[in-house]
Amino acid sequence: MSVSDPLADFLTCVRNAIGAKHRKVDVPASRVKTELSKVLLRERFINNFKVIEDDRQGVLRIYLKYGANDLSVITGIKRVSTPGRRVYVGKDRIPRVMSGMGSSILSTSRGLMSDREAREAGLGGELVCQVW
Questions:
Q1: DSSP string, 22-76
Q2: Which domains does the chain have, with CATH numbers?
Q3: Which of 23, 32, 68, 90 is in Cβ range 3.0-4.6 Å of 124 for a Cys bridge?
Q4: pTM of model > 0.85
């Protein structure tokens, strides 16, 4: 079965793994998913990730981060821009998630970056997802 929105599938796998208290989750790899994982790592939402090569497209293994009392660092993750409804924001209209406690992830002309990085660079772009 073909997936029409691989990023939404990626975010759902992460959300389900957090709900089941897994320490890691494996998803099919792609360049965009790898870049999204880099942003999540820079924003300290995950511990680490690695790409495992195989004969096909590869597997992206994400190591989830938990705090005290086994509470996940990621409490919510939401896809904003979808293939049927693209959401673009200018540099002055980048939304803050939970008053800065969360992060919006944007696809800009310089690649995927967090809302904080996009504001510093003075860039807007497509609002991919929000994590808190």
A1: -SEEEEE--HHHHHHHHHHHHTTSEEEEEEEP-SSS-EEEEEE-B-GGG-BS---
A2: 6-131 (3.30.1490.10)
A3: 90
A4: yes
Question: What CA–CA distance (Å, rounded) separates 111 from 78?
Answer: 19
Phi, psi of 101 (to 5 degrees): -75, -25
Strand order in the sheet with 46-52: 24-28, 59-64, 46-52
Q: Which residues contact 47 (CB under 8 A, 6 or more apart)?
A: 63, 64, 65
Torsion angle defined by CA atoms of residues 86, 64, 22 and 129, in that order, rounded to the nearest 10 degrees: -10
> Do residues 50 and 102 touch, judged by C-beta distance below 8 A?
no
pLDDT in tens, 47-91: 999 999 998 999 999 999 999 999 999 999 999 999 999 999 999
Structure-token match 């890691």, residue found:
24
| Alpha-carbon distances, residue 53 vs 12, 50, 56, 58 (angstroms) | 22, 10, 8, 5
